[in-house]
Each structure stands twice: as structure tokens, then as C-alpha cells.
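Here is a protein:
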Amino acid sequence: MEWEQILTQMMMQYANYILILLLVVVLIIMYKRGKKEIVIDVIRYLVAKAEKELGSKTGIIKKGKVISELYKRLPIIITILFSQKDISDLIDKAVIELDKFLEGQENNLNCME
């Protein structure tokens, strides 16, 4: 009978720790999701700025510049929450969006001529 009580107390104690850990994980996920749009907007801005400053055919240099500027501008908690792969993927998506936008602008100018 004593062992059952001890085991029950231990399970209840660990259940509290597990519940707290689960709550922290949920809060981190919610925070990350809420900040993702901000990170995407900053990346879009930095990609456009790098394209303007460095021009075409400098992809690796531009990506390095965007990553460097991003880490300078964002709070450290966000750089911890977003892995290097996450950031790299977001930059690649921003580049594709910019290319499509610029292609559309070029087509609009050709139609006006």
C-alpha cells in the first residue's frame, strides 16, 4: 500500500512538470507563429534592398547580406526560434516573390509601349 501511495505522488508531481513543459511549448509555438509574418516582412524588405544594391547574378552574396542584416535587426529570441533552414527557406520564397513581381512590372511596361 505504501508503494502505491509513493508511486501515485510521484506521478502527480511529474504530471505537474509535464503540464508546465507542455504549456511552455504551446506558448513558444504561438509566439513563433505570431512573429512569423513580421519576420517574413523584414526578409522581403531585405531581399529587395539587396537586389537593388547588388544587382543580379550575386545570389550567394545577397543571401549572406540578408541573413547578416536579419540577425542584426531581429530580437535574439526570434533568431533562436527560427532555425537557419527556416530563415533560408523564407529568403528563397521572398526571392521568388520578388522575381515574380519584377517580371509582372516588366510585362506591364512592355504592354504600355
